[in-house]
Amino acid sequence: MAIAPARKPTTRVLFLVAPGEQPMFTRMNLPPFGTGIVTASLRDSGCDVDLHDLNSDLWRMWRAGEFTKADLRPFYDERAVLDYVGGARNDFLDSFADRLLAGKDIEAAQVVGISAGGDFSFLEMQSAVVIGAHIKRHYGKPIVLGGNNLDYLMQFHDAFHSWWTAVITHFDAAVTGPGEDVFVDLVGKLARERTQLPMARPAPSPGVARLLGDTVLRSPDAAHRILAPDFDGLRLDDYHNFVRDRPTASPRKQEADEMWNRMQLYQFPAYLSWLANETNAQQAGQGVSGKLVMPYVFNYNCPYNCAFCTESLERVKLVHATVDDIVEDMAGLSSKYQTPYFYLFNNYFNLVNGFVEEFASRVVLNGVELHWSDCARFNSLTYERLALMAESGCRKLTFGLETASTKMLKIIDKRVKLAEAERVLGWCKEVGIWADLEIITGLPHEDEDTFAETTDFLERNAANINYFNVNRYFVAPKSLMGAKPEAYGMTLRKFPDAYQRLLDANYRWLAEDLEFSYKPQNFRVYEFDEIDGRSAEQLADVIVPKIAKLNAIQSTDFSDAWRVLSMRQDRAGRTPARFNNETMSMA
Protein backbone atom coordinates (compact mmCIF):
# COMPACT_ATOMS: atom_id res chain seq x y z
CA MET A 1 0.00 0.00 0.00
CA ALA A 2 1.38 3.38 -0.99
CA ILE A 3 2.14 5.73 1.86
CA ALA A 4 0.74 9.23 1.44
CA PRO A 5 3.43 11.88 1.55
CA ALA A 6 3.64 13.75 4.81
CA ARG A 7 1.82 17.09 4.71
CA LYS A 8 3.96 20.14 5.03
CA PRO A 9 3.25 21.64 8.46
CA THR A 10 1.29 24.89 8.29
CA THR A 11 2.77 28.01 9.84
CA ARG A 12 0.30 29.55 12.28
CA VAL A 13 0.24 33.34 12.37
CA LEU A 14 -1.69 35.48 14.80
CA PHE A 15 -2.33 38.79 13.02
CA LEU A 16 -3.53 41.73 15.11
CA VAL A 17 -4.59 45.27 14.21
CA ALA A 18 -3.61 47.70 16.97
CA PRO A 19 -6.48 49.92 18.16
CA GLY A 20 -6.72 53.66 17.61
CA GLU A 21 -8.98 56.42 18.83
CA GLN A 22 -11.79 56.08 16.28
CA PRO A 23 -13.87 53.46 18.20
CA MET A 24 -14.21 55.94 21.08
CA PHE A 25 -15.72 58.58 18.76
CA THR A 26 -17.68 56.80 16.04
CA ARG A 27 -18.37 53.44 14.49
CA MET A 28 -15.70 51.84 12.36
CA ASN A 29 -16.69 52.13 8.71
CA LEU A 30 -14.07 50.10 6.83
CA PRO A 31 -12.33 46.79 7.49
CA PRO A 32 -8.53 47.26 7.69
CA PHE A 33 -7.38 47.19 4.07
CA GLY A 34 -3.59 46.80 4.47
CA THR A 35 -4.05 44.00 6.97
CA GLY A 36 -6.49 42.30 4.60
CA ILE A 37 -3.90 42.41 1.81
CA VAL A 38 -1.13 40.90 3.96
CA THR A 39 -3.58 38.28 5.28
CA ALA A 40 -4.49 37.31 1.71
CA SER A 41 -0.81 36.94 0.82
CA LEU A 42 -0.04 34.88 3.94
CA ARG A 43 -2.98 32.58 3.30
CA ASP A 44 -2.05 32.20 -0.37
CA SER A 45 1.39 31.06 0.80
CA GLY A 46 -0.17 28.34 2.97
CA CYS A 47 -0.11 30.08 6.35
CA ASP A 48 -2.95 29.58 8.82
CA VAL A 49 -3.84 33.17 9.81
CA ASP A 50 -5.87 33.98 12.92
CA LEU A 51 -6.95 37.57 12.23
CA HIS A 52 -8.26 40.05 14.84
CA ASP A 53 -8.90 43.79 14.75
CA LEU A 54 -8.39 45.03 18.31
CA ASN A 55 -10.39 48.14 17.46
CA SER A 56 -13.43 45.88 17.89
CA ASP A 57 -12.25 44.86 21.35
CA LEU A 58 -11.52 48.46 22.33
CA TRP A 59 -14.98 49.50 21.09
CA ARG A 60 -16.66 46.86 23.28
CA MET A 61 -14.57 47.80 26.30
CA TRP A 62 -15.44 51.46 25.71
CA ARG A 63 -19.16 50.75 25.31
CA ALA A 64 -19.11 48.68 28.50
CA GLY A 65 -17.62 51.61 30.44
CA GLU A 66 -14.46 49.72 31.37
CA PHE A 67 -12.34 52.87 31.05
CA THR A 68 -12.56 56.58 30.31
CA LYS A 69 -10.63 58.44 27.64
CA ALA A 70 -8.61 60.15 30.36
CA ASP A 71 -7.53 56.73 31.70
CA LEU A 72 -5.45 56.17 28.56
CA ARG A 73 -2.84 58.76 29.55
CA PRO A 74 -0.02 56.14 29.86
CA PHE A 75 -0.31 55.38 26.13
CA TYR A 76 0.56 59.03 25.44
CA ASP A 77 3.62 59.03 27.69
CA GLU A 78 6.77 58.49 25.61
CA ARG A 79 8.88 57.30 28.50
CA ALA A 80 6.23 55.00 30.01
CA VAL A 81 5.63 53.17 26.71
CA LEU A 82 9.27 52.83 25.69
CA ASP A 83 10.33 51.72 29.17
CA TYR A 84 7.61 49.07 29.07
CA VAL A 85 8.87 47.88 25.66
CA GLY A 86 12.34 47.69 27.19
CA GLY A 87 11.18 45.45 30.04
CA ALA A 88 10.09 47.85 32.79
CA ARG A 89 7.02 47.06 34.82
CA ASN A 90 3.84 49.02 34.09
CA ASP A 91 0.74 47.43 35.56
CA PHE A 92 -1.72 49.63 33.65
CA LEU A 93 -0.22 49.00 30.19
CA ASP A 94 0.25 45.31 30.93
CA SER A 95 -3.29 44.75 32.18
CA PHE A 96 -4.86 46.85 29.41
CA ALA A 97 -3.03 44.81 26.77
CA ASP A 98 -4.15 41.64 28.51
CA ARG A 99 -7.80 42.75 28.34
CA LEU A 100 -7.50 43.61 24.64
CA LEU A 101 -6.00 40.20 23.93
CA ALA A 102 -8.55 38.20 25.93
CA GLY A 103 -9.75 35.17 23.98
CA LYS A 104 -6.96 35.29 21.37
CA ASP A 105 -5.08 32.02 20.91
CA ILE A 106 -1.59 33.43 21.34
CA GLU A 107 -0.06 30.14 22.47
CA ALA A 108 -0.93 28.43 19.17
CA ALA A 109 0.82 31.07 17.06
CA GLN A 110 4.35 30.57 15.81
CA VAL A 111 4.66 34.22 14.76
CA VAL A 112 2.63 37.29 15.73
CA GLY A 113 2.13 40.09 13.21
CA ILE A 114 0.88 43.46 14.46
CA SER A 115 -0.34 46.27 12.25
CA ALA A 116 0.31 49.69 13.74
CA GLY A 117 -2.48 51.04 11.53
CA GLY A 118 -2.51 53.65 8.84
CA ASP A 119 -4.53 56.58 10.20
CA PHE A 120 -1.59 58.58 11.61
CA SER A 121 -2.97 57.85 15.06
CA PHE A 122 -0.61 57.85 18.00
CA LEU A 123 -2.78 55.43 19.94
CA GLU A 124 -2.38 52.96 17.06
CA MET A 125 1.40 53.37 17.06
CA GLN A 126 1.78 53.29 20.83
CA SER A 127 -0.65 50.44 21.44
CA ALA A 128 1.06 48.35 18.75
CA VAL A 129 4.36 48.33 20.61
CA VAL A 130 2.67 47.85 24.00
CA ILE A 131 0.79 44.80 22.70
CA GLY A 132 3.97 43.47 21.08
CA ALA A 133 5.92 43.90 24.32
CA HIS A 134 3.15 42.21 26.31
CA ILE A 135 3.18 39.18 23.99
CA LYS A 136 6.99 39.02 24.05
CA ARG A 137 7.03 39.20 27.84
CA HIS A 138 4.30 36.66 28.60
CA TYR A 139 4.42 34.32 25.60
CA GLY A 140 7.88 34.71 24.03
CA LYS A 141 6.54 34.85 20.48
CA PRO A 142 8.39 36.48 17.56
CA ILE A 143 6.87 39.87 16.70
CA VAL A 144 6.69 41.48 13.25
CA LEU A 145 5.34 45.04 13.08
CA GLY A 146 3.86 46.65 9.99
CA GLY A 147 1.30 49.21 8.84
CA ASN A 148 1.41 52.51 6.98
CA ASN A 149 2.02 54.42 10.22
CA LEU A 150 5.52 52.93 10.25
CA ASP A 151 6.20 54.70 6.96
CA TYR A 152 5.15 57.96 8.63
CA LEU A 153 7.36 57.33 11.66
CA MET A 154 10.27 56.42 9.40
CA GLN A 155 9.95 59.61 7.35
CA PHE A 156 10.38 61.56 10.60
CA HIS A 157 12.75 59.03 12.16
CA ASP A 158 14.96 61.72 13.66
CA ALA A 159 11.99 63.01 15.71
CA PHE A 160 11.01 59.47 16.72
CA HIS A 161 14.51 58.10 17.21
CA SER A 162 13.76 56.75 20.69
CA TRP A 163 10.68 54.89 19.39
CA TRP A 164 12.63 53.30 16.57
CA THR A 165 15.54 52.34 18.79
CA ALA A 166 13.20 50.54 21.18
CA VAL A 167 11.34 48.75 18.37
CA ILE A 168 14.44 47.62 16.50
CA THR A 169 16.15 46.49 19.69
CA HIS A 170 13.27 44.51 21.20
CA PHE A 171 11.17 43.19 18.28
CA ASP A 172 12.02 40.82 15.45
CA ALA A 173 11.18 43.01 12.45
CA ALA A 174 9.43 46.27 11.57
CA VAL A 175 8.24 46.54 7.97
CA THR A 176 8.12 50.16 6.77
CA GLY A 177 6.85 49.59 3.23
CA PRO A 178 4.63 47.17 1.28
CA GLY A 179 4.20 44.05 3.38
CA GLU A 180 2.38 41.58 1.17
CA ASP A 181 5.54 39.65 0.24
CA VAL A 182 7.90 40.78 3.02
CA PHE A 183 5.62 39.40 5.75
CA VAL A 184 5.52 36.00 4.05
CA ASP A 185 9.33 35.92 3.90
CA LEU A 186 9.78 37.04 7.52
CA VAL A 187 7.14 34.67 8.88
CA GLY A 188 8.77 31.76 7.08
CA LYS A 189 12.21 32.55 8.48
CA LEU A 190 10.97 33.13 12.01
CA ALA A 191 8.85 29.98 12.04
CA ARG A 192 11.78 27.88 10.79
CA GLU A 193 14.57 29.37 12.84
CA ARG A 194 12.57 30.09 16.01
CA THR A 195 15.14 32.73 16.82
CA GLN A 196 15.03 36.48 16.71
CA LEU A 197 16.00 38.04 13.41
CA PRO A 198 18.62 40.68 14.17
CA MET A 199 17.30 43.81 12.48
CA ALA A 200 20.73 45.41 12.88
CA ARG A 201 22.32 43.02 10.39
CA PRO A 202 23.78 44.67 7.24
CA ALA A 203 21.22 43.39 4.69
CA PRO A 204 17.76 42.72 6.14
CA SER A 205 14.65 41.99 4.10
CA PRO A 206 13.31 44.78 1.85
CA GLY A 207 11.59 47.57 3.72
CA VAL A 208 12.70 46.43 7.17
CA ALA A 209 14.06 49.02 9.60
CA ARG A 210 17.49 48.55 11.16
CA LEU A 211 20.11 50.31 13.24
CA LEU A 212 23.63 51.06 12.08
CA GLY A 213 25.34 52.27 15.20
CA ASP A 214 22.92 54.87 16.49
CA THR A 215 21.43 55.62 13.07
CA VAL A 216 17.98 54.39 12.06
CA LEU A 217 17.98 53.08 8.48
CA ARG A 218 15.32 51.92 6.08
CA SER A 219 16.07 49.25 3.52
CA PRO A 220 14.62 49.86 0.03
CA ASP A 221 10.95 48.92 -0.05
CA ALA A 222 9.62 45.83 -1.75
CA ALA A 223 7.33 46.31 -4.74
CA HIS A 224 3.59 46.36 -4.26
CA ARG A 225 1.51 43.48 -5.56
CA ILE A 226 -2.19 43.83 -6.41
CA LEU A 227 -4.34 41.51 -4.30
CA ALA A 228 -7.96 41.35 -3.22
CA PRO A 229 -8.06 41.75 0.58
CA ASP A 230 -9.12 38.82 2.76
CA PHE A 231 -11.12 39.79 5.86
CA ASP A 232 -12.24 36.30 6.90
CA GLY A 233 -12.04 35.91 10.66
CA LEU A 234 -12.99 39.48 11.49
CA ARG A 235 -16.34 40.39 13.07
CA LEU A 236 -17.54 42.07 9.91
CA ASP A 237 -20.74 43.48 11.39
CA ASP A 238 -18.50 45.83 13.40
CA TYR A 239 -17.78 47.68 10.12
CA HIS A 240 -21.36 47.93 8.91
CA ASN A 241 -22.51 51.10 7.24
CA PHE A 242 -26.23 51.24 7.96
CA VAL A 243 -28.22 51.92 4.80
CA ARG A 244 -31.91 52.05 3.94
CA ASP A 245 -33.03 48.70 2.58
CA ARG A 246 -36.75 48.06 1.96
CA PRO A 247 -37.09 45.31 -0.68
CA THR A 248 -40.91 45.25 -0.38
CA ALA A 249 -41.31 49.02 -0.77
CA SER A 250 -42.55 50.63 -3.97
CA PRO A 251 -40.03 51.28 -6.77
CA ARG A 252 -40.28 55.01 -6.05
CA LYS A 253 -39.37 54.52 -2.37
CA GLN A 254 -36.56 52.12 -3.22
CA GLU A 255 -35.14 54.69 -5.62
CA ALA A 256 -35.32 57.34 -2.89
CA ASP A 257 -33.61 54.95 -0.46
CA GLU A 258 -30.77 54.30 -2.88
CA MET A 259 -30.29 58.03 -3.41
CA TRP A 260 -30.03 58.53 0.37
CA ASN A 261 -27.53 55.66 0.62
CA ARG A 262 -25.37 57.22 -2.08
CA MET A 263 -25.49 60.58 -0.31
CA GLN A 264 -24.48 59.04 3.01
CA LEU A 265 -21.67 56.92 1.59
CA TYR A 266 -20.33 59.17 -1.16
CA GLN A 267 -21.61 62.74 -1.10
CA PHE A 268 -21.08 63.45 2.59
CA PRO A 269 -17.54 64.23 3.81
CA ALA A 270 -16.17 61.60 6.19
CA TYR A 271 -17.11 63.28 9.49
CA LEU A 272 -20.72 63.67 8.31
CA SER A 273 -20.89 60.16 6.84
CA TRP A 274 -19.87 58.79 10.26
CA LEU A 275 -22.59 60.79 11.97
CA ALA A 276 -25.22 59.65 9.44
CA ASN A 277 -24.12 56.07 9.99
CA GLU A 278 -24.54 56.42 13.76
CA THR A 279 -28.01 57.89 13.25
CA ASN A 280 -29.07 55.14 10.85
CA ALA A 281 -27.74 52.43 13.19
CA GLN A 282 -30.40 53.42 15.71
CA GLN A 283 -33.03 52.27 13.17
CA ALA A 284 -31.46 48.89 12.35
CA GLY A 285 -34.22 46.41 11.54
CA GLN A 286 -36.72 49.17 10.78
CA GLY A 287 -36.01 49.49 7.10
CA VAL A 288 -32.28 49.88 7.79
CA SER A 289 -29.66 47.14 7.45
CA GLY A 290 -25.90 46.90 7.75
CA LYS A 291 -23.74 46.72 4.63
CA LEU A 292 -19.99 46.59 4.23
CA VAL A 293 -18.11 49.09 2.11
CA MET A 294 -15.12 47.36 0.54
CA PRO A 295 -11.73 49.08 0.33
CA TYR A 296 -9.73 48.14 -2.75
CA VAL A 297 -6.61 49.36 -4.59
CA PHE A 298 -5.49 48.39 -8.10
CA ASN A 299 -2.65 50.86 -8.74
CA TYR A 300 0.31 52.13 -6.77
CA ASN A 301 2.91 54.85 -7.38
CA CYS A 302 2.47 58.00 -9.41
CA PRO A 303 4.17 59.16 -12.63
CA TYR A 304 3.74 62.82 -11.67
CA ASN A 305 6.17 64.80 -9.56
CA CYS A 306 4.22 67.16 -7.27
CA ALA A 307 6.95 68.71 -5.13
CA PHE A 308 5.08 68.48 -1.81
CA CYS A 309 4.24 64.78 -2.25
CA THR A 310 6.16 61.91 -0.65
CA GLU A 311 6.36 60.20 -4.07
CA SER A 312 8.23 63.10 -5.69
CA LEU A 313 11.70 62.37 -4.35
CA GLU A 314 12.15 58.78 -5.48
CA ARG A 315 10.75 57.55 -8.78
CA VAL A 316 9.18 54.13 -8.34
CA LYS A 317 7.83 51.91 -11.09
CA LEU A 318 4.08 52.08 -11.62
CA VAL A 319 2.13 49.01 -10.46
CA HIS A 320 -1.27 48.53 -12.12
CA ALA A 321 -3.51 45.47 -12.36
CA THR A 322 -5.15 44.36 -15.60
CA VAL A 323 -8.77 45.29 -16.20
CA ASP A 324 -9.81 41.62 -16.14
CA ASP A 325 -8.16 41.10 -12.75
CA ILE A 326 -9.67 44.31 -11.33
CA VAL A 327 -13.22 43.45 -12.38
CA GLU A 328 -12.76 39.86 -11.18
CA ASP A 329 -11.50 41.11 -7.79
CA MET A 330 -14.30 43.66 -7.35
CA ALA A 331 -17.03 41.25 -8.50
CA GLY A 332 -15.59 38.55 -6.23
CA LEU A 333 -15.45 40.86 -3.20
CA SER A 334 -18.98 42.09 -3.93
CA SER A 335 -20.30 38.53 -4.05
CA LYS A 336 -18.32 37.21 -1.09
CA TYR A 337 -19.15 40.07 1.27
CA GLN A 338 -22.63 40.78 -0.14
CA THR A 339 -22.14 44.45 -0.98
CA PRO A 340 -22.07 46.61 -4.12
CA TYR A 341 -20.30 49.49 -2.31
CA PHE A 342 -16.57 50.24 -2.71
CA TYR A 343 -14.10 52.91 -1.69
CA LEU A 344 -11.15 52.78 -4.09
CA PHE A 345 -7.88 54.26 -2.80
CA ASN A 346 -5.79 54.49 -5.96
CA ASN A 347 -3.36 57.25 -6.76
CA TYR A 348 -5.96 58.12 -9.34
CA PHE A 349 -8.46 56.11 -11.37
CA ASN A 350 -7.61 57.37 -14.87
CA LEU A 351 -3.89 56.69 -14.54
CA VAL A 352 -3.48 54.53 -17.67
CA ASN A 353 -4.63 55.54 -21.16
CA GLY A 354 -7.63 53.55 -22.36
CA PHE A 355 -8.35 52.15 -18.88
CA VAL A 356 -11.63 54.03 -18.35
CA GLU A 357 -13.21 52.69 -21.52
CA GLU A 358 -12.04 49.13 -20.96
CA PHE A 359 -13.10 49.04 -17.30
CA ALA A 360 -16.54 50.49 -18.01
CA SER A 361 -17.22 48.07 -20.85
CA ARG A 362 -16.22 45.05 -18.72
CA VAL A 363 -18.43 46.13 -15.81
CA VAL A 364 -21.45 46.87 -18.00
CA LEU A 365 -21.10 43.78 -20.21
CA ASN A 366 -20.70 41.50 -17.19
CA GLY A 367 -23.72 43.06 -15.48
CA VAL A 368 -21.77 43.79 -12.27
CA GLU A 369 -23.58 46.20 -9.94
CA LEU A 370 -21.02 48.51 -8.36
CA HIS A 371 -21.04 51.85 -6.57
CA TRP A 372 -17.59 53.36 -6.04
CA SER A 373 -15.50 56.45 -5.41
CA ASP A 374 -11.84 57.14 -6.15
CA CYS A 375 -9.24 59.82 -6.76
CA ALA A 376 -8.73 61.17 -10.28
CA ARG A 377 -6.77 63.72 -12.27
CA PHE A 378 -8.35 66.30 -14.53
CA ASN A 379 -5.91 65.41 -17.30
CA SER A 380 -7.45 63.48 -20.21
CA LEU A 381 -10.95 63.28 -18.72
CA THR A 382 -13.60 63.98 -21.33
CA TYR A 383 -17.36 64.17 -21.00
CA GLU A 384 -17.65 60.77 -22.67
CA ARG A 385 -15.18 59.15 -20.27
CA LEU A 386 -16.93 60.59 -17.25
CA ALA A 387 -20.27 59.33 -18.57
CA LEU A 388 -18.75 55.85 -18.91
CA MET A 389 -17.42 56.04 -15.36
CA ALA A 390 -20.87 57.02 -14.06
CA GLU A 391 -22.41 54.11 -15.96
CA SER A 392 -19.88 51.71 -14.37
CA GLY A 393 -20.85 52.86 -10.88
CA CYS A 394 -18.71 55.93 -10.15
CA ARG A 395 -20.44 58.11 -7.56
CA LYS A 396 -17.65 60.48 -6.52
CA LEU A 397 -14.19 61.56 -7.69
CA THR A 398 -11.65 63.46 -5.59
CA PHE A 399 -9.25 65.71 -7.53
CA GLY A 400 -5.99 67.06 -6.17
CA LEU A 401 -6.22 70.70 -7.26
CA GLU A 402 -4.18 71.98 -4.24
CA THR A 403 -4.18 75.61 -5.41
CA ALA A 404 -5.75 77.67 -8.18
CA SER A 405 -2.81 80.07 -8.37
CA THR A 406 -0.95 79.61 -11.65
CA LYS A 407 2.24 80.75 -9.92
CA MET A 408 1.91 78.22 -7.07
CA LEU A 409 0.88 75.42 -9.44
CA LYS A 410 4.12 75.96 -11.35
CA ILE A 411 6.22 76.03 -8.18
CA ILE A 412 4.85 72.70 -6.94
CA ASP A 413 4.88 71.23 -10.49
CA LYS A 414 1.23 70.20 -10.27
CA ARG A 415 0.64 70.17 -14.04
CA VAL A 416 -3.01 71.16 -13.82
CA LYS A 417 -4.66 73.46 -16.35
CA LEU A 418 -7.29 75.51 -14.57
CA ALA A 419 -9.53 75.85 -17.62
CA GLU A 420 -9.51 72.06 -18.02
CA ALA A 421 -10.27 71.64 -14.31
CA GLU A 422 -13.32 73.89 -14.61
CA ARG A 423 -14.60 71.96 -17.63
CA VAL A 424 -14.22 68.60 -15.86
CA LEU A 425 -16.02 69.86 -12.75
CA GLY A 426 -18.93 70.96 -14.93
CA TRP A 427 -19.04 67.62 -16.75
CA CYS A 428 -19.00 65.71 -13.43
CA LYS A 429 -22.08 67.66 -12.39
CA GLU A 430 -23.81 66.87 -15.71
CA VAL A 431 -23.22 63.10 -15.57
CA GLY A 432 -24.08 62.77 -11.86
CA ILE A 433 -20.63 62.30 -10.28
CA TRP A 434 -19.92 64.29 -7.12
CA ALA A 435 -16.60 66.12 -7.44
CA ASP A 436 -14.46 66.77 -4.35
CA LEU A 437 -11.21 68.74 -4.28
CA GLU A 438 -8.07 68.67 -2.16
CA ILE A 439 -6.86 72.19 -1.32
CA ILE A 440 -3.56 73.08 0.37
CA THR A 441 -2.98 76.42 2.04
CA GLY A 442 0.14 77.62 3.84
CA LEU A 443 2.64 76.78 1.09
CA PRO A 444 5.85 78.83 1.29
CA HIS A 445 5.45 82.30 -0.28
CA GLU A 446 1.71 81.93 -0.73
CA ASP A 447 0.67 85.59 -0.49
CA GLU A 448 -2.70 87.34 -0.48
CA ASP A 449 -2.88 87.47 -4.27
CA THR A 450 -2.12 83.79 -4.84
CA PHE A 451 -4.49 82.79 -2.06
CA ALA A 452 -7.22 84.97 -3.59
CA GLU A 453 -6.86 83.09 -6.88
CA THR A 454 -7.79 79.90 -5.06
CA THR A 455 -10.77 81.38 -3.23
CA ASP A 456 -11.98 82.99 -6.47
CA PHE A 457 -11.80 79.61 -8.24
CA LEU A 458 -13.76 77.89 -5.47
CA GLU A 459 -16.44 80.56 -5.42
CA ARG A 460 -16.71 80.63 -9.21
CA ASN A 461 -17.16 76.84 -9.40
CA ALA A 462 -19.13 76.34 -6.19
CA ALA A 463 -22.16 74.91 -8.00
CA ASN A 464 -20.02 72.10 -9.46
CA ILE A 465 -17.91 71.33 -6.37
CA ASN A 466 -19.39 68.91 -3.87
CA TYR A 467 -16.86 69.44 -1.07
CA PHE A 468 -13.23 70.46 -0.70
CA ASN A 469 -10.83 69.23 1.94
CA VAL A 470 -8.76 72.05 3.45
CA ASN A 471 -5.22 70.89 4.22
CA ARG A 472 -2.58 72.96 5.99
CA TYR A 473 0.78 72.45 4.27
CA PHE A 474 3.29 70.38 6.21
CA VAL A 475 6.88 69.52 5.32
CA ALA A 476 7.30 65.88 4.31
CA PRO A 477 10.98 64.87 4.45
CA LYS A 478 10.49 62.28 1.69
CA SER A 479 9.45 64.95 -0.83
CA LEU A 480 11.33 67.37 -3.08
CA MET A 481 10.29 70.29 -0.89
CA GLY A 482 11.40 68.49 2.25
CA ALA A 483 14.71 67.30 0.80
CA LYS A 484 15.57 70.63 -0.88
CA PRO A 485 13.75 73.29 1.17
CA GLU A 486 16.02 76.16 0.07
CA ALA A 487 15.05 75.56 -3.56
CA TYR A 488 11.45 76.26 -2.55
CA GLY A 489 12.22 79.34 -0.51
CA MET A 490 12.21 77.98 3.02
CA THR A 491 14.51 77.02 5.87
CA LEU A 492 13.30 74.27 8.17
CA ARG A 493 12.94 74.29 11.93
CA LYS A 494 12.49 71.14 13.95
CA PHE A 495 10.19 71.21 16.95
CA PRO A 496 12.13 70.31 20.10
CA ASP A 497 10.78 67.13 21.72
CA ALA A 498 8.33 66.67 18.84
CA TYR A 499 7.44 63.11 19.87
CA GLN A 500 6.18 63.98 23.36
CA ARG A 501 4.68 67.28 22.19
CA LEU A 502 2.57 65.43 19.64
CA LEU A 503 1.61 62.82 22.22
CA ASP A 504 0.47 65.59 24.57
CA ALA A 505 -1.61 67.26 21.84
CA ASN A 506 -3.26 63.94 20.99
CA TYR A 507 -4.01 63.19 24.63
CA ARG A 508 -5.58 66.64 25.16
CA TRP A 509 -7.80 66.08 22.12
CA LEU A 510 -8.86 62.68 23.46
CA ALA A 511 -9.31 63.60 27.12
CA GLU A 512 -11.23 66.80 26.33
CA ASP A 513 -13.64 64.66 24.28
CA LEU A 514 -13.53 66.86 21.20
CA GLU A 515 -15.21 65.88 17.95
CA PHE A 516 -13.33 63.36 15.79
CA SER A 517 -12.79 66.04 13.14
CA TYR A 518 -10.59 67.97 15.59
CA LYS A 519 -7.83 65.39 15.23
CA PRO A 520 -4.39 66.95 15.88
CA GLN A 521 -2.02 67.74 13.03
CA ASN A 522 0.30 64.80 13.47
CA PHE A 523 2.23 65.60 10.29
CA ARG A 524 3.55 68.90 11.65
CA VAL A 525 6.94 67.79 12.90
CA TYR A 526 8.76 70.68 11.21
CA GLU A 527 8.02 74.39 10.85
CA PHE A 528 9.67 76.66 8.30
CA ASP A 529 10.72 80.27 7.78
CA GLU A 530 10.44 81.78 4.33
CA ILE A 531 13.76 82.87 2.85
CA ASP A 532 13.58 86.66 2.57
CA GLY A 533 10.03 86.47 3.85
CA ARG A 534 7.92 85.66 6.87
CA SER A 535 8.95 83.74 9.98
CA ALA A 536 7.23 80.56 11.11
CA GLU A 537 5.43 82.59 13.79
CA GLN A 538 4.11 85.08 11.23
CA LEU A 539 2.96 82.24 8.98
CA ALA A 540 1.13 80.68 11.92
CA ASP A 541 -0.71 83.95 12.51
CA VAL A 542 -2.06 84.16 8.96
CA ILE A 543 -2.99 80.50 8.48
CA VAL A 544 -6.03 80.58 10.79
CA PRO A 545 -7.95 83.30 8.93
CA LYS A 546 -7.04 81.61 5.62
CA ILE A 547 -8.58 78.33 6.71
CA ALA A 548 -11.60 80.15 8.09
CA LYS A 549 -12.11 81.92 4.77
CA LEU A 550 -11.88 78.69 2.82
CA ASN A 551 -14.36 76.95 5.11
CA ALA A 552 -16.76 79.87 4.73
CA ILE A 553 -17.01 79.03 1.01
CA GLN A 554 -18.04 75.45 1.77
CA SER A 555 -21.62 74.46 0.93
CA THR A 556 -24.02 75.09 3.81
CA ASP A 557 -25.78 71.80 2.96
CA PHE A 558 -23.25 69.95 5.08
CA SER A 559 -23.57 72.19 8.15
CA ASP A 560 -27.36 71.93 7.87
CA ALA A 561 -27.15 68.12 7.66
CA TRP A 562 -24.81 68.07 10.67
CA ARG A 563 -27.29 70.00 12.79
CA VAL A 564 -30.25 67.81 11.79
CA LEU A 565 -28.37 64.56 12.43
CA SER A 566 -26.99 65.90 15.73
CA MET A 567 -30.50 66.74 16.94
CA ARG A 568 -31.67 63.24 16.07
CA GLN A 569 -28.93 61.87 18.31
CA ASP A 570 -29.53 64.42 21.09
CA ARG A 571 -25.92 65.50 20.77
CA ALA A 572 -24.59 68.73 22.18
CA GLY A 573 -24.63 71.48 19.57
CA ARG A 574 -20.93 71.21 18.95
CA THR A 575 -19.78 72.40 15.54
CA PRO A 576 -17.26 70.19 13.73
CA ALA A 577 -13.79 71.59 13.17
CA ARG A 578 -14.36 71.58 9.42
CA PHE A 579 -16.60 74.63 9.92
CA ASN A 580 -14.18 76.39 12.25
CA ASN A 581 -10.63 77.57 11.80
CA GLU A 582 -8.51 74.42 11.82
CA THR A 583 -7.78 71.21 13.61
CA MET A 584 -5.57 71.22 16.69
CA SER A 585 -1.89 71.94 16.22
CA MET A 586 1.08 70.63 18.18
CA ALA A 587 1.29 73.66 20.41
Automatic annotation (TrEMBL):
A Pfam family reported for this protein in Swiss-Prot or TrEMBL: Radical_SAM
Highest rank taxon of the organism: Bacteria
Domain Radical SAM core: 288-512
S-adenosyl-L-methionine is among the record's keywords: yes
GO MF annotations, alphabetized: catalytic activity; iron-sulfur cluster binding; metal ion binding
Gene Ontology CC, one term: cytosol
Identification of the protein by name: Radical SAM core domain-containing protein
PANTHER family registered for this protein in UniProt: ANAEROBIC MAGNESIUM-PROTOPORPHYRIN IX MONOMETHYL ESTER CYCLASE-RELATED (PTHR43409), BLL1977 PROTEIN (PTHR43409:SF7)
UniProt keyword annotation of Zinc-finger present: no
Cofactor (UniProt): [4Fe-4S] cluster
SUPFAM superfamilies attached to this UniProt entry: Radical SAM enzymes (SSF102114)
Keywords tagged on the record: Iron, Iron-sulfur, Metal-binding, S-adenosyl-L-methionine
